[in-house]
Design goal:
Layout (H helix, E strand, L loop, with lengths): L3 E8 L9 E8 L4 E5 L6 H9 L6 E6 L2 E2 L10 E4 L11 H11 L4 H14 L15 H13 L5 E5 L7 H17 L4 E6 L2 H7 L2 E5 L3 H6 L2 E5 L1 H6 L4 H6 L6 E10 L4 E5 L2 E5 L11 E6 L5 E2 L7 E11 L3 E8 L4 E7 L9 E5 L6 E3 L12 H9 L13
Parallel strand pairs: 3-8, 3-9, 6-7, 7-8
Antiparallel strand pairs: 1-2, 1-4, 4-5, 9-10, 11-12, 11-14, 12-13, 14-20, 15-19, 16-17, 16-19, 17-18
Helix pairs in contact: 2-3, 2-4, 3-4, 4-5
């Protein structure tokens, strides 16, 4: 039995001409950490607030632990929510802020103390229990807000962009604490809303990537649902491919020349590029888009197949890595990620190699074609960061 189920969930606000949330069907298992991510306005927080009972459901069924909860009050759903703002009582100590909700429920005082101290230990708040919120840093205040949720011992934790108000270093630190919290409290399901795909990739057991705009009405709100590396390796469409990954995937217009069940050849201007995808469902000369991630593009001497040329348009030296931005003859801007310092100069010609096993292909409707590369071969360059060695590509 899943911990949380969404069955044909729709949400339309009064007077709106279209659904904000459309046709959401998801199953979240007990103990899973699921992240809702997507562009602004896609409905991430709206979907989260439906689980909390803070938003009405226009149609469909929402279930928690096998029980339909569409009309169940928030206080009886067994959920606890951590908001973007800390919302701490300024006149109460850390201890009292964490204990307040339990006291309102008239929980026995010994139980209150046990739960507060247990949560305090998990979040390393023991030295801060007697302090007021004004004496805490932003990261400490957010930990208190999380502690206030923990003491309720809910079946479901809901996080609504809890790190948005923190600076970069505190975001990383608090993100690690939330990941540890999930490990320590393994039986509770967690739903986490963020616009930051790095948070999504590092925290989630599964990601729900939500569509925005017209795609919601055409395809439904969920663009893709699955483990982070599944979305990274096998995006179902161009939107998912472009959203997951930083910097985002490069896209180059091409024309399909020929295909068999294991690979396809597409022409980028006059250059033949082999991709290990199944394009047998497309006719010859079909317009397609090739996709390749910045870390897989290689700067090489001039060659034959899968090699394109351009001019260096911009260069970013970050120390541990460099980003080289190359303008191709067709006008596309391709990002190349290199380890260390790049030895190229703005304005100079450059030759790029697209490894066939790392190329994605999308049809005219932006749907991804199935990749035929072995999972092991695919995993090495994408997961471990191993440079893909250039091999001679023979185009029949």
């Amino acid at each position: 039995m899943s911990a949380i189920s969404f069955r044909n969930i729709h949400k339309r606000y009064d007077g709106a001409s279209a659904d904000t949330i459309r046709n959401v069907n998801l199953e979240i298992q007990a103990g899973e950490f699921v992240v809702f991510v997507g562009p602004s306005g896609c409905g991430k927080s709206t979907l989260l607030r439906m689980v909390a009972g803070l938003e009405d459901i226009s149609s469909g069924d929402l279930g928690i632990k096998g029980q339909r909860v569409n009309e169940t009050p928030p206080s009886r759903r067994g959920v606890a929510m951590v908001f973007q703002s800390y919302a701490l009582y300024p006149h109460m100590t850390v201890y009292d802020n964490m204990a307040f909700g339990l006291k309102q429920l008239k929980t026995e005082s010994t139980t209150v103390d046990q739960r507060v101290r247990k949560a305090s230990k998990i979040l390393q708040l023991d030295p801060l229990l007697k302090r007021l919120p004004k004496e805490l840093s932003g990261g400490q205040r957010q930990r208190v807000a999380i502690g206030r949720a923990i003491v309720r011992e809910p079946d479901v934790f809901l996080f609504d962009e809890p790190l948005s108000n923190l600076d970069a270093s505190l975001r990383v630190q608090t993100r690690l604490e939330i990941a540890k919290l999930h490990k320590d409290i393994g039986t509770a399901s967690m739903i986490y809303v963020t616009h930051d795909q790095v948070e999504a990739m590092t925290l989630a057991d599964k990601i729900v990537l939500l569509n925005a705009g017209e795609a919601v009405q055409r395809d439904g709100s969920v663009a893709q649902f699955g483990p982070p590396l599944e979305l990274y390796h096998h995006p179902v469409n161009k939107f998912v491919a472009g959203f997951i990954g930083s910097p985002k995937m490069n896209f180059v217009s091409a024309r399909l020349a020929r295909a068999n069940g294991k690979s396809a050849v597409a022409m980028v201007s006059e250059v033949a590029c082999l991709a290990e995808v199944d394009a047998t469902g497309l006719p010859p000369n079909a317009e397609v888009t090739l996709g390749v991630r910045p870390e897989h593009v290689q700067i090489v001497p001039p060659g034959d197949a899968n090699v394109v040329t351009g001019l260096v348009a911009f260069l970013e030296q970050l120390g541990e890595s460099s980003y080289v931005y190359v303008r191709l003859a067709g006008g596309e801007l391709v990002t190349v990620r290199q380890s260390g310092q790049a030895s190229v100069s703005v304005g100079n010609p450059i030759t790029l190699y697209f490894p066939p096993q790392c190329l994605h292909m999308f049809d005219a409707n932006d749907v991804a074609l199935k990749r035929t590369v072995d999972a092991d071969v695919l995993g090495q360059p994408l997961v471990a960061g191993v440079t893909v060695a250039r091999t001679r590509t023979v185009v029949a």
